[in-house]
Amino acid sequence: MILDVVNPAKAPVSVLVLTRDEAANIGECLESLRWADEVFVVDSLSTDRTAEIARALQAKVHLHPFVGYADQRNWALQNLPFAHDWVLMLDADERIPKALADEISVAVSRQDTYSGFYLARRIFFMGTWLKHGGLYPTWLLRLFKRQRARVEERPVNEHVIVNGSVGYLAHPFDHADRRPLGDWVTKQNRYADLQTEEYLREKSRLGFTSSIRANLRGSQAERKRWIKLRIWNRLPLLFRPFLFFTCNYFLRGGFLDGRAGFIYHILWSFWIKFLIDVKVMERESASRRRGSASETGDRVQAIKSQSKKAAAS
């Protein structure tokens, strides 16, 4: 019988990091995880040095073609040979400060009833911690017992669903993307496509096979989902970005984060939301044109059929 050997100086946690062309970020991310007993990197066939850097830092690298964020995470949870029950899920542009690492080590060692923990994310943009504008704290369920968890099946903004009670850790983790702003814009454009798909599916009431609850009295994520489904999706397109920017930048104090806050909210609170609305309008217009063309084709076919019957008689 072969037993997994756990370094007693490290926390009994398995870390899961998804990557795709993250050479600029993966080094810092993995350096912040040296306290964890094992780290898995699931790489979506990067074209840069991401996998090479990860291997050099002793991460266990697995290559897997990317289908979707939820699919990639669920594949990893179901197929990777994790040594530990507790899994910490991160993105390559995220880091775990020492205070949080110490808190996680204590949390997973306790014999309590929790099956997962929410962690607070703090976003750094242009070197500035964005404390206001509804950005902090954003609570994300990132630490959980893998046999009690799955990721909801959504194209983007997917959350972990845990079967059991969850707690909250006090210290935050950091989101700080080291790539150029142009790469961030490219990624947000891709996210806008996915959020357009998500919106159209929700509006058509098709829904998703697994999802967190939409509950105004629930967790932060459940409250946001309720607002999205019951209010946001019902607001007029093109009006929504102006409302979102006004709420985040003025009413929720985004202006208190200075120049970095202004730039971020112009891009994130306004431009991205405006882009999504335009993409929705484009998709809906294309759908109407296809429907009109199909209807015209059916009428033409009916006329031809009637003509043939008349000629035969």
Plain-language structure description:
This protein is of the alpha/beta class. It has two domains: 11-175, Spore Coat Polysaccharide Biosynthesis Protein SpsA, Chain A; 181-291, no CATH class. It is built from eight helices and twelve strands. The strands form two sheets. Strands 1, 2, 3, 4, 5, 6, 7, 8, 11 and 12 form a ten-stranded mixed sheet that branches. It has a two-stranded antiparallel sheet with strand order 9-10. The chain starts with 10 loop residues before the first strand and ends with a helix. 27% of the residues are buried. Mean pLDDT is 93; it is low at 1-5.
Distance between the termini: 86 Å
What is the H/E string? Answer: EHEHEHEEHEEEEEEEHHHH
Q: β content, as a range?
A: 15-25%
Mean pLDDT: 93
The level 1 CATH classification of the largest domain is Alpha Beta
Oligomer: single chain
- Number of discrete helical segments: 8
CATH architecture of the largest domain: Alpha-Beta Complex
Question: What spatial form do the alpha-carbon principal axes imply?
Answer: globular
CATH superfamily of the largest domain: Spore Coat Polysaccharide Biosynthesis Protein SpsA, Chain A
Helical content class: 40-55%
Radius of gyration: 23 Å
The description of the largest β-sheet is:
10 strands, mixed
Extended strand count: 12
Q: Structural class, from helix and strand content?
A: alpha/beta
Count of discrete structural domains: 2
Q: Which blocks of ≥5 consecutive residues have pLDDT under 50? A: 1-5
The CATH topology label of the largest domain is Spore Coat Polysaccharide Biosynthesis Protein SpsA, Chain A
